[in-house]
């Protein structure tokens, strides 16, 4: 009787048995063995795994993880120096993944990662947090660059192998992904639910890219743009009005910014609570004091000036 049951039904029935009984059932026949193996895979298990710093782990290890831990929700692969695009394909099997940390996985490209995350039955996992900091190989595909330079679609839809498909994303860290440009950021960074974003140490980010990100990510509450030396007051004049929810802002070492940017932020970002303008030579201490007087809810302004003074104003 049991032999005539569909494989899915047999798997469902065995999933209610204790682990020891499932192992016994796997000895009955080949069909029962397959059903028992499927039931084992589908059992709730480990949901969080941190492999940070395991520099000797290779692509095979990630493949084994994806096969044996289907219910992973949080995965950290920070500093896995041997992980390549081939290993990224295994991420497509982690259907419940909610947060992924691949900071300093320098052999992984953005195109293959996007393809892997979008390979689950044509839809990406419900990823909410993604860190790709210091991924020096992260760069857009040429076709993506070409599309970004063309006329902008007023109602874009996720297409192809792009991080743009991760529409549920709320946190994204692209710190020191130095090959990213305005064109790729304008095309990819369109996440209406995104609350936290880091674009620090992006040498090619200009005012054009800043405005594009502001339009694509209007719900930002935390934004880091330190060492983005091409940003100017004009860029902030256009971008600030898109971020009324902004609370934490890091502009340290943005050397072209002046007190005009502080005035712009003060007028447009009424919920701002923390501001870092350390090493911004165009912003004086007097300008910082005026900014805090304008926005009494600001609790902390960090200012470290070229002359050596290290000042933090806390209310």
From TrEMBL:
<dbReference type="InterPro" id="IPR032675">
    <property type="entry name" value="LRR_dom_sf"/>
</dbReference>
<keyword id="KW-0833">Ubl conjugation pathway</keyword>
<feature type="domain" description="F-box">
    <location>
        <begin position="1"/>
        <end position="33"/>
    </location>
</feature>
<dbReference type="Pfam" id="PF12937">
    <property type="entry name" value="F-box-like"/>
</dbReference>
<protein>
    <submittedName>
        <fullName>Leucine-rich repeat-containing protein 29 isoform X1</fullName>
    </submittedName>
</protein>
<keyword id="KW-0433">Leucine-rich repeat</keyword>
<dbReference type="Pfam" id="PF25372">
    <property type="entry name" value="DUF7885"/>
</dbReference>
<dbReference type="GO" id="GO:0019005">
    <property type="term" value="C:SCF ubiquitin ligase complex"/>
</dbReference>
<dbReference type="InterPro" id="IPR006553">
    <property type="entry name" value="Leu-rich_rpt_Cys-con_subtyp"/>
</dbReference>
<dbReference type="InterPro" id="IPR001810">
    <property type="entry name" value="F-box_dom"/>
</dbReference>
<dbReference type="InterPro" id="IPR057207">
    <property type="entry name" value="FBXL15_LRR"/>
</dbReference>
<dbReference type="GO" id="GO:0031146">
    <property type="term" value="P:SCF-dependent proteasomal ubiquitin-dependent protein catabolic process"/>
</dbReference>
<dbReference type="InterPro" id="IPR036047">
    <property type="entry name" value="F-box-like_dom_sf"/>
</dbReference>
